[in-house]
Amino acid sequence: MQSVERRKSPWVQNERPAKRVHPSHQHQVPSHMNQLTSYELLEQLGKGTFGVVYKARQKSTGKLVALKKFIVHDRKEGFPITSFREITIMRKLKHNNVLQIIDMVHERGGFKENDGVDIDIDIDTADPSASASSPMGYFYTVTPYISSDLNGLLRNKSIKMTLPEIKCIMKQALQGIDYVHSRHFLHRDIKTANILLDSFGTVKLADFGLARIYHGVYPDTPESLPGGGRREYTGLVVTRWYRAPELLIGVRKYTTAVDMWGMGCVFGELYKRDAILQGRSDLDQADRIFQLVGAPSESNFPHSKQDNRNGINLLVDYPRTLEKEYGTLMDDQALELFDGMLKLDPVKRFNARKALGAAYFSTEPLPCLPGEIRKYEESHESDFSHASGPRKPEVERGPESAARSIKKSPEKAASSRFIGRQQTRQSSSWTASHGKTHNWQGRNDGWGSGWTSRRPFSDNKRYEKRLPSSQASSSDLYGSEANQSFSAMRKYLHEKKKE
């Protein structure tokens, strides 16, 4: 059979061969991005679904910093969408009471040691199928090292805070969340462990891993109400002990009021020195709330019966105990603020502006200045996690925590961190530790950094267009260097995705 020569189409002017990447370029570190060798790792501070946090020292300046490691397991999976969202949101927030990203760091795949500290993939959080020599390597955010968090300070029995110090800390925390809300973001994980206190007495809101853009109207005056949610969000957010009642019953179109409930719990904890509502399950959590603030009714918790998707028992007849339980710890002004932030009805709950204008902050003794807060010994939540026994809620966040609570078969144990692979984007279900099955639908919405998008940048381009423009220039604070590193990271990941 005579062979026929294939002729080039006259309509195709430039036929390009398939792109090939030279092996020497596969591990090329992005420009404008520092390497991990620029820092001396000192100790591991904590670990979670996102990866690992280290205390480190910047070699060029000698300053202490915190490195938060985001593990990129597989270039097919892409950079975790929730981690990218967290970094994007933090770059938009420029406020003295919000933790700032000062740099981004890249670590080449397979790098295991730095100044004697093991920084290999943590077996509890890593995907077992991931290679330690992933071509993408790992990325870190660099933030100032903060000496303490409120959880550690309150659990340290040697530390006794004065009333002016408590007022100063609470005022700064409210200023931080007021700013976050004014920039149209929800934090969605307010708790004492995420409120940091530096050596200068400045409070910093941290951990924006569950934060999302808020599509409602921000209550920008003390008397204005939070705008009704314009879209549905994930319901299982916020650590259970700080979770608002509307989240417990299953409301999905929630508002900035969910963060204010968390602030109310933090306020009570500053006086009690322990979490005020330590529920063992969502049902028990709701029950404890009703015992404290009173039984729900149509007047104090409207539409709760209609919105109750989770089977919370609303037919209780508990007498209100808030004043009796905290009357010996708080004065009348403190009780008024406490009650205002713990209203069952999210519409009647204090917004941040109203809380800041409460009489509590203008009566004697007045809040001290941040610089007047005593320098306490370093105290973090992790310092007491083992010594004091189990204290954390059973359900932490999203499908990943559920995966840890399920007795895994060998097949299910293959990868709990990327449990999302076993689920469809349209409909999934998972079982929490209290045995109840939860169903959720739609796109990923802040379940923690384990849920990984296969299209990490096409989705985020649309997401970034919705973000409000920053009130500060990119060079403000640490913005210039961090912005360069962030842009380099995004470009680098995008190129790796195309290889």
TrEMBL record:
Region (Disordered) location: 1-32, 377-481
UniProt protein name: Serine/threonine-protein kinase BUR1
Residues bound to ATP: 68
Keywords, in A-Z order: ATP-binding, Kinase, Nucleotide-binding, Nucleus, Serine/threonine-protein kinase, Transferase
Subcellular localization: Nucleus
One annotated GO molecular function: RNA polymerase II CTD heptapeptide repeat kinase activity
Gene3D superfamilies reported for this sequence: Phosphorylase Kinase, domain 1, Transferase(Phosphotransferase) domain 1
Family membership noted in the UniProt record: Belongs to the protein kinase superfamily. CMGC Ser/Thr protein kinase family. CDC2/CDKX subfamily.
GO biological process terms on file: filamentous growth
GO CC annotation, single: nucleus
